[in-house]
Amino acid sequence: MDIGQYEKEIKNASSLEKLNDLEIKFLGRNGLINDFLKKIKDIPNEEKKEYGQKVNQLKKDVLRLIESRRKELSGKKSDKFFDETLPGKQYPKGSLHIVSFAVEEITKIFEKIGFIRVSYPEVDWEYGAFESLNMPSGHPARDDVETSFIDAPANLKLGKMVLTPHTSNGQNREMKRVKTPPIRMINISKCYRPNWDATHTPMFHQFEGMCIDKNISIIHLKGTLDYFAEKYFGKGTKTRLRPHHFQFTEPSFEVDVTCTVCRGTAKVNGNKCKVCKSGWLELGGTGMVHPNVLKEGGIDPNKYSGWAFGFGIERVIMMKYGLDDIRNYYSGDIRFLEQF
Length: 340
Ligand code: FA5
Description:
elongated, BirA Bifunctional Protein, domain 2, binds adenosine-5'-[phenylalaninyl-phosphate], alpha+beta, seven-stranded mixed β-sheet, 21% strand
C-alpha cells in the first residue's frame, strides 16, 4: 500500500484520457484499491480496524493526486488543432412581437408631445364602458360594439362586468384621476369583441388619445392627427375627417389617412389602387368630448373642452406594412412574425 507507486504513475500521465484510465485502474469498482477492501475478510479481527484505516487513507491520497494532476492537465493547451478564426455558433435572436413593437412606437410618438401613457382595466363595469360615455342602459348605440359579459355578480351602481370593447372606458377614469385639466392621455389596452375575419380578431388593441384643457378645439385635434400620421406612416401622409356618430363625442368623425400604397393618388402604375380604391384608408373614430361625458368625469364643460380618438393598433400596422389579414399576428407562425 505504498503511495509512491501510485504517485509516480499519476504524475507521468501525459493526457486527461490517460489520467481517466488510471482513475479507473486505481479507484474503479474492480480497481486496485477496492481489491484491498475485498481482502479485509482475510485479515485477523484485531488488525481489521488499522487495515481499513490505511486503505481509506490511501484512497483519499490517490484521489487528491488525481485531482491535482487533472488540474495541471486541463490548464495545458490541447494538442488538437483549433481554428480560432472560424465564426461562432449563431443562436436565433428574439424580437418584440409586431403589436408590442407598435405599442412602443405609438407611445413614443405621443410622449414627445406631452401625452402620458396609461393603461386601464381590460375587465371593467358597464358604467366605464357605456354609462360614463353617455350610453345609458338600453341605449341602441350599445349594440354597435358587441360586448362579452363576465359571469360574475353585478354591482348595483356600476352594472355588470364586461371585457372592455374599446379603450374609451379610460376616459372617465382618467378625468377622475387627474381631476383638474390639462389632460393629455394616451391609453393603450387590449379590447374584446366577438368578431373573427381578415380585419377583426376577438382580442385586439386600441390606442385612445384624449386632450382636455381650456379652449381646445378641432384645430388641435386635426394638428395632432396630422402629426401622428406623418410620424407613424411617413412624411407626406395626410388625414381627413368625415362626419360620423359616436354617443360620447359631438361632433363626431371618422378619420382617414392617405393610403400608404398609392400615397393618396388612388392609382398604382396607372391602375386603380387595390388597397384603398379611393386614395384613403380608414383609421378610426374621433370627435369633441361630449359635455355629458365631461360632467360625468367631474369636469365643467363650460370651462373646459377636449377631444378624443380611438384607433386599432392591429389596423394601423396593417396599413403601414400593407398586410391583408390581421389573424396572422396571432397565428404563432414564426415565419410571418420574424419578418418584422
Ligand atoms: C370605437 O371603439 C370608439 N371607442 C372610438 C372613439 C374613441 C371614437 C374616442 C370617438 C372618440 P370603433 O368601434 O370604430 O370605435 O373602433 C375603433 C377602431 O378599433 C376601428 O377603426 C378598428 O381599427 C379597431 N377595431 C374595432 N374592432 C376590431 C376588431 N374586432 N379587431 C381589430 N380591430 C378592431
